[in-house]
Amino acid sequence: MRRGIRIVLGILIIFWSLAPIYWALVVSLATPLQVDIAKPFFFPHPITLRYFTLLLSWNATSRSFLRIGLNSIIEAAMTTLLTVIIATMAGYAFARLRFRGQTLFFYLIVGTISLPAYAVIVPLFQMMSQLNLVGTYSGVILVEISAALPLATWLMRSYIASLPTSIEEAARIDGANLVATLRQVILPLIGPGMASTTIVVFLMTWSQFIIPLTFAPASHAESLTVLITQFVTKDAVDYGLQAAAGILALIPAAILVVRYNRRLVSGLLTGAVTS
Amino acid sequence: METRTITQGARPVRGKQRARPLWRKFFTPYLLVLPAVAVIFGLVIYPLMFSVFSSLHVDDLLYAGIHTYIGLKNYRQVLLDPSFQIAVRNTLVYFVLATIGVLIIGLTISSWLHSIDLKWRGLFLTIVILPWAVPGVVTGLLWSFIYNPTSGILDGVLRSMHLISQNIVWFCHTSMSLVLITVALLWQIVPLSSVILLAGLESIPPTLYEAATVDGCSAVRRFFGITVPLLRPSLAIVLVQTAVLSIGIFDQVYVLTGYDPSTKSAVIQTYLYAFQNLNFGQGISAALLITLGITVIGYLYLRLIYREVAY
Q1: DSSP readout, A138-206?
Q2: B63: distance to nearest CA of chain A, Å?
Q3: Which of A106, A196, A220, B89 has its CA 20 to 30 A from that of B258?
């Protein structure tokens, strides 16, 4: 590719990726006057933090932005933790051990990767309401685990299968049993794979919308993504507030992407092969 | 770290575990996969089977637990429902537009990333992948600020370039709305496609291009003669993912136009059946029909495009 084309393309691509985020940042920092005056602008002037302070100090009958943000963090963190633990155990068994029904179990779990969440959301809702789990953390977390687990299991199995077996064999010969091998030999080795899986699962869960919308609407377990859509429909006029909420919701994701981009990309690539 | 653990494992104390009974060795794999199997069975497979069952039955209103077999009535009702037909038509438009968009933008971005220096690639890869991590509803929100008819930047830019004299209300026109929603979806799903295609491009040995150049092939011929055929597996994966994500579009539509009939997707319609009309039977049938559609399209893609490449 010629140098000139490359530079022009580069500018266009960076613009495409970042401009929507930049524009929301501008709207969140601009004064309502500037937004309402209907004259094109590209920079906030003067800059105001009123929307951010308004959001963070907003407190209406036990539903505050911070509280709901914390809900999202708790749900995403718990889902990620449990998913990664369960997926590591299963991934090890699938990659290293031989047992009856292995292939069946493997297809049972991994086969549901591209099964979309909405395919089972109605019967799940009926189940969860019978169990009184609608509107609780446990309900949301359980469903989110079931949505993330197939991909996570695949990622962990692929990673463990790519490791050389010689170290484990050495440990076995030295008399370590399976649990000891798993804890003392495998765990330190699969750190990078677990890190990739953790980031992919966390980001996927953080973005979830249809699950929290169905299983925890307007309850104490409400999530940030659901709250944001309510800003859109109820306070449709206050663009600044919406923009500030959007920016705050994408900050954790952006930090993870910037900090762990390599792990994320390798996780995504491994995950992509399944389809 | 590793050496330490190995020496620990070698301690003679561990020898006592050799006396463990055989059944433990037999059961360990099952214990390891048990939580995963339980979660998937309880929360995916069982509800799915229950779905199929309840889509074919109707609950007795007087006696709980008594179901009457009604055959394919739910499916027939859903398929004949004009609002489902419109939703399916909209969804097909999203699917076609998103597929074209992913191919054009994804191939452009991945070729660009492939052509730049390795030193810079990490940075630009981070910028490219960032929209993937932005939650779908936030994506919808970001684009709503762009499309906004009073203060949106799209109208602003067009006006300052004197292309339009007054602001356009973008979501007034159905076909325009479908395009704009697809753009918001593309922004979120193109990053992953670009990364997959980039990996595909990197797996093509550069010597092939050198040989073709020596033989006098033009850049266009090199692209269609070498890149496209060797990129087949990656393309198949990208197309399947695009089908799954665009046919399942929900977040962006929900935020940008809500339940508006002219733009609602099939999944939105499913949601309306189940949680607004409280007709779970129809909701389940609609969801299963969409899932079936995705499965068929994915299968066709893999059959037609995915071929192991050998060189």
Answers
A1: HHHHHHHHHHHHHHHHHHHHHHHHTS-SHHHHHHHHTT--HHHHIIIIIHHHTHHHHHHHHHHHHHHHH
A2: 17
A3: A220
